[in-house]
Amino acid sequence: MNDAQEARGHVVASYKNATTRTVSADGVTFAYRELGPQSGVPVVFLTHLAAVLDNWDPRVVDGIAAKRRVITFDNRGIGASTGATPRTIQAMAKDAVTFIRALGLEYVDLHGFSMGGMIAQVIAQTDPQLVRKLILTGTGPAGGEGIKDVTRLSHLDTVRGLFTLQDPKQFLFFTRTAGGRRAGKQFLARLKERTHDRDKAITLTSYGAQLKAIHRWGLERPHDLSVVRQPVLVANGESDRMVPTVNSADLARRLPNAELVIYPDAGHGGIFQYHREFVGTALEFLER
Questions:
Q1: What is the pLDDT of residue 159?
Q2: CB neighbours of residue 159 within 10 Å
Q3: Percentage of residues in the chain having pLDDT higher than 70
Q4: How far apart are CA 3 and CA 123, in angstroms?
Q5: At what angle do helices 89-102 and 115-126 cross, to 10 degrees?
Q6: DSSP assignment, residue 207?
Q7: How many domains does the chain have?
Q8: Among 37, 121, 198, 227, which one is most buried in terms of CB atoms within 10 A?
Q9: What residue numbers bound the domain in which 116 lies?
C-alpha cells in the first residue's frame, strides 16, 4: 500500500499543486509527485545533476500531464528521499527501477534529462521489458564527448553565478545571447511558482556523488546501443556546453529506432526554452 493509491481517481492538473508523496522499497523512502490522467502508460521523469522535485519546469510537466500520467521522483539520497546517493549511473538506474516497481508499475515511458538521460539508457539495457518508449534530452552516451568535463564546467559556472549574483543554471543551461538570457530568466522564475511543500535542496555530499557518477560515465567505454529497440526521441539545444550537442547526434545515430530534434539558439536547457514545441513533439511521439 502506498500514498499513490489515495490519489486514484483524483486528477491533479498542475505540478505546482501536486502533493509530495512517499513510497518505501529496498530500505529507501522515495519522495515523488504525480499528476495527469490515471490511465495509460505513465511517463517517469529522471532528473539532472543537483536537481530535486522542484527543478522540473512546470510548463514541461504540466504540458505532458495534460495527456499523460507523469511521475517525478527524488532518487536515493536526493531531496526528501532517504539513503546515500550512489556514485555510479548504473546504481542510480537500479534505484530508479526499484522505485518504479514499488509503485506497482510494470510498463513505463521514461523521460531522462541530462544525468537522467544517462540513467534512462541504463534502464533500457538492464530492464528492457519495463520500458515502452524513451525521451532523452540534453544527454549523451557513456564515453561521450566532453561528458567527463561536467565537473569542471559546473564548478566554473557556480563561481560565475556567485560573483554575478545569478543562478548557475543561467550559464549552464542557456546561451549568452539575448534570447538565451531571456529564456533563462523566465525558466528560473517558473521554478519558483510552487510556494508550498517545496522539496529539500540537495546536500553537498549527494552533489559530489552525482558529479563522480557523471565523470565515470564520461570515461566509460561506449555501450552497444543497438540493443535498445524501443522508439527514442532525442532532443537538445544546438549549443549545449554541459553535454555537447554532438552527443545527441551520436545517440540518435547509434540507437536503431531514434529521431533527433535540435533547437536553435539554445543550450543544455533547450527543452525548457522551447517548452511549447518540445511538449507538442513529445506528446505526438508518446501517443504515436
A1: 73
A2: 11
A3: 95
A4: 25
A5: 70
A6: H
A7: 1
A8: 121
A9: 4-287
